[in-house]
Each structure stands twice: as C-alpha cells, then as structure tokens.
Protein 1
Amino acid sequence: MTESLTDQRRLRPRGSNLGRELAEKLRARIIGGEFPPGARLPSETAISDAYGVSRVTVRTAVKLLESQGMVNVRHGSGTYVADFGGQVRTGLQELRSISETIQEMGFTPRMERYRMEQRPATPEEAAKLAIDDGTEVISIQRAILADEIVMAYSYDVIPSSLIPASHVGELGVDSLFRVLDQLGLQPVRALAELHAVNSTEVAWGPSQPESGLYLLLDQVHQDQRGAAVAYSRTYFVEGRFQFMILRTR
Amino acid sequence: MTESLTDQRRLRPRGSNLGRELAEKLRARIIGGEFPPGARLPSETAISDAYGVSRVTVRTAVKLLESQGMVNVRHGSGTYVADFGGQVRTGLQELRSISETIQEMGFTPRMERYRMEQRPATPEEAAKLAIDDGTEVISIQRAILADEIVMAYSYDVIPSSLIPASHVGELGVDSLFRVLDQLGLQPVRALAELHAVNSTEVAWGPSQPESGLYLLLDQVHQDQRGAAVAYSRTYFVEGRFQFMILRTR
DNA sequence: GAGTGGTCTAGACCACGCA
DNA sequence: GCGTGGTCTAGACCACTCA
C-alpha cells in the first residue's frame, strides 16, 4: 500500500478524521465483496501497517464499524464481517446523513420534495426548537429514496432565520445535512425519540407502502454550541431500513 | 492526589477499565455538587495529572460522560457540566435492566410469566445465539408491568446449558438481568435491532392493548467474552415507554 | 505458544476560543 | 498568544483464542 492516509491530511473534509476515513475504506472493501459475511478481516496490526496508521487509529475505525453493526469483534480471535443481508443498516447512536448512509451501503440515494412552505412555528415545534411561539419556520416534506424505493418520509422544520434566501431552493432536494453544512450549521448531535406508527396519512403520492407501518425518529438536531438547528420527524418504512444499536453497560 | 488509579489495577472488577472508573469518580464529584450545572471541569491535562492517568484515558472518561448527557465539551473552551434538570433520562445506548429503568422512573415494576418451556432452538434462534440448530433452550414469555400496567411483552430464549435447574424457577418472575447476574452471566452488551410491529398476536391474556402497535427491540445479549447469553424480542407497547437516544457525530 | 484483540502511556502537533 | 480540547503515533504489556 503506497498510498498513505496521513499524506492526505490537508485534503480531508470537515468533521473527518483518520479513524473515520479508514472505516470508510474498510466498509467499501466489505461492501465490495472482498470480505464477505463471516470473513475475518486482517489483524489490527496488519491493517495498521497496510494503511500507515497507528493501531489506535485502526481500533477507532473498527469500533465505528462495530457500532454500525458491520463487523463483530472477538477477543483473541479476530474481527469478522457481520451478515446484514444486503439491507441498509446503520448504527442509531451515530448521527449521520441518511443519504450518506444509503450511499455507503451501495445504493443510490435521492430526495423528492413534496411540499415546502414558510409559516409560523406550532407551539410544539417552537418548544422543540427552543424558539418563541409563532416564529417563522421553513417546513419541508420530502421522501428519501434508495435505488428509487422510498425508504422514509420526512417532515422537517427549520427556523427561517437560519436559512438565507439563496439556499432555500436546495432544501428538500439536496441532503438536509449538506445544506446545513454549507451554512456552517452542521448538526453535531441530535436528541431522538423513537416510536412505532401505523398511519395512512404519513405517505403521499404513488407507490405508497401498503402496510402504513413506520419507525418514527423524532429528533432535534443541535449544532456545536447546543443550539437547535432543525426538528425532524422521519418516518422509516418498516422493513426497508435496518436500525441497530450496540448497547453497552 | 496521592491515590493513583493505576495502583489499583489488580483490584479492579472485571469489565471495568481506567476510563470507566475515572468517569465514575468524576460523575460522583459532579453529582456531589462540587461541579454544579454550567461549571467547567478542570482541563484534561489537569485531570490527567491529578489522577495519574494518561490524557487518552481522561478523554475516554469524558467521552463517556458526554454520551450520557452529563457534560458538554466545547473545543478550545472547556468541558462543562450539563444541566440535566433533575430528570433521569435513560438512553437506549446504555444497556440496563428494564425493571431497573422502570423503578428509576418512580414506578413499581413487576414481571408476569405467561409461559415457559424447554425445547430445541429454532434455526433463527440458533443463529442469533451462535449455537447449533436444535440445541436445547429455555423459552420464556413474560409481560413487564409498571404500576400494574403492561409496558412490554417479552419473548426470551436462553440456552438451557447456562441455567442450572435451581434457578429455572426464577426465570420470568424476577428480572432476567438479576437471574443472569447471579449466575455470573451478566450481559455487558446487546446488539439490538429496532422495528415497528403491528400485530394482535403479540399480547396475551386480558387487558391487551387496543392498538396492537409495538416498538420491537430485537436483541442478543452478550457476556464479557462476547458469548451470547440470551436472545430477547421485547415488544414495547407504543406510547407507554419512551426511548431516547443521543446521537453524535 | 503464537497470534489476536484490550488497555494504557508519553509525547507530539493541530484547531479552536477567548481575552 | 495562551490554554483548551482534537487527533495521532509508537510502543508496551495484558487477556484471550485456538491449534
């Protein structure tokens, strides 16, 4: 391996780090089929040598993959690729763009904006966003697709004051994360609530899921200073998106 | 600080580590009022000196506290005690007994065993528990109540070999965690999958929830060695139990 | 016993905030 | 400009698995 990760340090995108990058590369190799489910990854020292990074860095990468349910680590034995049956799978505790997640699992993400309007915040939205009742917000309804199949319907609310007119057009078309990122409002944490929902009023348009069964992720996104930047209710169509979480004591 | 954490290495309980211990000590000082909400903790180097551990270890401790919503870390400024308003908010990412959680929310937990049998594992169960097809397992169906209201219906499977006959009677009556703990099989991690479920076949007995809507926590509990000790499918009645999770980048 | 992951250290340099 | 947290390294030793 002649290409060292550290050489590219200056070119790295924001919010990235060597561990994260290494995790991406390993994930790509896993999805690419080089390491099929059940296969053992090279040892941590071997990976460390191959990529020219320290073992500590390798370990942060492996831990990330583990928390995403991508691999299982067995002390004294090795790190093995998990069997996630080709489904989109993601670790809940890590805040990431849905589009990114879809892409990394080897599918093509797309947004479809259904409706967007500017209106006063409802009391509930105002409470979630910690703004005054009736403050102007931009409300967006969009569908999130992977390979043209709807993964989720999302209802997002953002205080209008955060979005300059020049960027409004991108909302609901591009990834919400990407838009916020460009404005320096990258969410770094989200306080999320989980619910099961059964309703025919969530979806719109053609090809609505038959069951009407969703996993609702009700979350407030916060920026680095702890300020609320967005309130999202994202309804994931049950069975199309796999949420997992590594719970530890 | 004369008492160095590293000196006690041999006395440390299993499954612990310096970072976790340090987090406990810091948490105790925070709860004890030494650092009230909004206060800044000593710098990482200062803590590292005071406790005789490396800064890397301090950072793992601080990260743990941050993931529990105990502190907010601000780059270039410091680490501040969060204002958690007296509320006990149990995050999903932390593995705890449901009974314990119910108790901490001020309710009285109770188990109601509906059915228990010993039988060969189904292929799916065997796969989850990493045992051979057809290995004998104990299957338990129980309801978990808080103040006599059903919070969840749980379907648990445990390899028979793990449970001595003397403890079988407690299964499904006492907290599963407590029973496993007594056998030295305390789960330290669980790989959980989340699903929305709508079914009338989950619940039993009288006073079944009308909606049939559940949040399913499908999880494999593992002990310290990574061995699967139990496979649980717990159906939480939607709306009666609140799951929160702090997602971070 | 060889090889794997688990833990920890000391030290370096970078990026950010704040006065 | 100084102090803070953010990242990364090289190396050490321990605990575990498996042949």
Protein 2
Amino acid sequence: MHDIRLIRDNPAAFDAGLARRGLEPLSAAILDEDARWRSVSTSLQEGLARRNEASKAIGAAMGKGDSATAEALKAEVAALKTRLPELEAEEKALAEAIRDRLAAIPNLPAPDVPEGADESGNVEAHHWGEPRSFNFAAQDHADFGPALGLDFEAAAAISGARFAALRGQMARLHRAIAQFMLDQQTGTNDYEEVNPPLLVRDDAVFGTGQLPKFAEDLFRTTTGHWLIPTAEVSLTNLVREQILPESALPLRFTALTPCFRSEAGAAGRDTRGFIRQHQFEKVELVSICTPDQAADEHAHMVASAQAILEALGLPYRRMLLCTGDMGFSAAKTFDLEVWLPSQGVYREISSISTCGDFQARRMNTRYRPEGEKGTRFVHTLNGSGLAVGRTLVAVLENYQNADGSVTVPDVLVPYMGGLTELTPR
RNA sequence: GGAGAGGUGGCUGAGUGGUCGAAAGCACCGCACUCGAAAUGCGGCGUGCCGGCAACGGUACCGUGGGUUCGAAUCCCACCCUCUCCGCCA
C-alpha cells in the first residue's frame, strides 16, 4: 500500500517508479480523486461541526429548562440532516475508491534494482559451486524418482495432476531436508521457530499483498478461509495491527509449512516432475525490522538461505531480479537458483525480498522509535530458506548415480537414521 | 454444535443518551524536594484524517459494521473475538 502523502508530495517520482515497473502513470488520476475526497471530507467535517455545536446547545438549553430554544435548535439541525448522509456516503465512496486503487498498485522498485521487462533482465550477483560432471547422462528426477518412492500415479488417482506422494526412503529424505533446514534457521541463523495457522482470513492475505489482485492463485475453503500460498502470510501477519517497541526489533521468524497454490495460468509449464505442485513444503524466513535494519536483515536472510545450499553441496547462483520480474509487494528481490543437471539450467529454489513499509501499511504494523514521539511503519522481509520440494529435486538430480541410486549428502545422513543411499526397488 | 458472560486508552478498571476522548489507579515522561536515590508533591501523557509554516483548530475512533436520535461508549440489529459450562473430537 502506497502512502498517499508521498504521491501528493512528489507525483513525478511515483510515476517514475511505476514506469520502471512498466506501468502507466497513475498519480494524476489518484491526486484528482484525492482532491475531490478532501473537498468532500472538509464539507462533511464542517457539517458535523455545526451539528455537534447545535446538539451541545440543545443539551444546554434543556438543562436550563428552556424547551422553546431547544425545539428551535432541533428544527435547525433536522434541516442539516438531509445533507449530511449524502456527504457521508460520498466521502466514504471516494475514500474507498482511493484505497482500492492504491491497494492494487505494486510496490515501487528500490533504486538499485535493474530495469527489465522479464526474467531475462535479471542480473547474476553471485554464484557458488561447480556443476558436477557426470560420466553418464544425468537423468530427470521424474524418470528415476519413481523407483525410489516418488509416486505421481497414485497421487494423481487421489488428487489429480500436480500432486505427488512420497513413499519410503523418498519420504524420509524429504523430511530429513526439511528438518535440517529448520534446525539451521532456528539455530545458527537465529530465527524463532513458529508453527502458524495454515488457514487464514482475507485481512491477512491482503496484508502481505496476495489479495485483492491474486485471488485466483489461491485455494479457498467453504468457510471463507484461504490456504496459505506461503508461510510469509502467517509469519508476517503475526505482528499485524501492533505497535512494537523498537527494542523488540528485528523480529526473525521461521516456519516449516505446507504451501498451497492453485497454479492458475501455469497450465503446460513444469507439468512433469516435482517442480510445480499444488501443495509443497517450504521453510520460510520473515524479518520485521526498522528501516535502518532492513538492508542488513536482507543480507542475513540471503546468507541464511545460501548456507543451506552450500551445506548440501548444491551449486547455485544468486540473481538480482529486474523490475519486470519482481513480485507485487517487493521493493528488491534476490532469487537463488539451484543447478538441475537433467535440464542443464538453474531453477529458482528461493526468493528473498525486502518490502519496505509496503506490507506494514497494509497490516498497520508500527513501532515506536526510541527518543522520538509517535510511531513509524516497520519494514518487512521474507524469503525461502528453502523450498523443500525443489531442494529434494536438486538433491536427487545432483547426487544421482548411474545405477539409479542416490547418495545422501553428508549433512543429511544423521537425519536419515544413518542411511547413506537411496536404492531403487 | 448448545447455554451463559464479556469486549472501554500501554495495563487494570469506572461510565446516568447530552461540556465523555472518556473517572480513578498502575506504568511512562518532565519538574520540584535530595549529595544521589527511594518515597512524596506538581505537571504531562492515545491514534488516524483534514486545514495550518507553526502554535493550534476541526473531525472521527470505547471489538467490527449497520440502525434509532437533534445528540450514542451508553439503546436496537448483525457479525467477529475472548472466557465459563455442556456436547463432540485428534
């Protein structure tokens, strides 16, 4: 949610930011509506002031037993009452229209975000590890996975396309990856573990920015709840409508949760394999902090996610997303992309964004700066640390052997009860 | 799911339809007293929006949204949430 005052103060800068996102200028239309709202609002307030004044006088007159004056004043206020409801309705409609308009505008990119129309404009910022050279043709996990317990057919019979069942060693490896990640994030990386609600209300999803524009990407229950598409929703909204003491910041949260995405519009993309599912698990990282802390928190979050890939020995690169590839709420995003040998490409496995006060405004989350009076909006950041399903895919493909077995990465062996290899049946 | 009770400022907690944005206490801030501190005394102490350079003025907010009224924290309706008891249940 944008601050209308910033748009009033510097409409050109606002439109320039939109232009970097590839959007038409909107400030003129917004400010026009804003001017009308202020005019109506002022008239309304003047009317209310007159009404309040007269009502007080009526009270005073009645207190003195002067019913003649009271009745005269009542008649006067009654006349006002025909106009006030109209003004009220008009004011409300305009305020709502402005809010709806602002709520649908994405965050503006940070100054150091490169301009670009789509993912081809992203810039590599860092890479780690060398893709392993295979002495056989690296296979696709969708091909050798089923013999190791990755069951697409049974899941399709139960739930349809884009679902999978993990069985035996495969289920164990998936769990091992998730537990390892969660232990790292809660331990060395200092995030507080949270087990949050997976079903959430409109307000929460609005707060992080998935609503109102992206309802079709979400699942909704018959009770009106939404299934979270990412724990970012639950974790960030943990502080919604709160005023936090500055000393409490930064707050760092992590959660291992299922995520549910309808994948509307993704028909035909990544239909094979475990890459794009309606349901997947992810270890999410969220930071709630002051504006001054945000850059460091972003760096810490990036490092926390990268550390997982490095511990697992998975080659990756870090991309600075360009303006055209960033999500709705983000001001600046790094994606981590892991090497998938079967496809010979790097695939997104983590996305780490700083959102400025964009989400904080939508959630009304503020803090009290020490030594200042009043409150300011917090900054929020979120990132995957990491997506469990895609990490499973990366481990399978990077650690596959010619005989269809998969070597368990060293750090996961303790989580596998000592099992060092997945063997085909 | 059924029955009941309740949602008021950072917290506790008053509030008769009419100077109630709201008593009081606690907490907090400033000042005084003190060598210093405690105790005590005095003063201050909510948020949003609009106007104003500012001082300040106006307006809204007592769970949320409607309604009644000249006027609603107070009356009416709906919803949300919390607590207690019963039922069901991992």
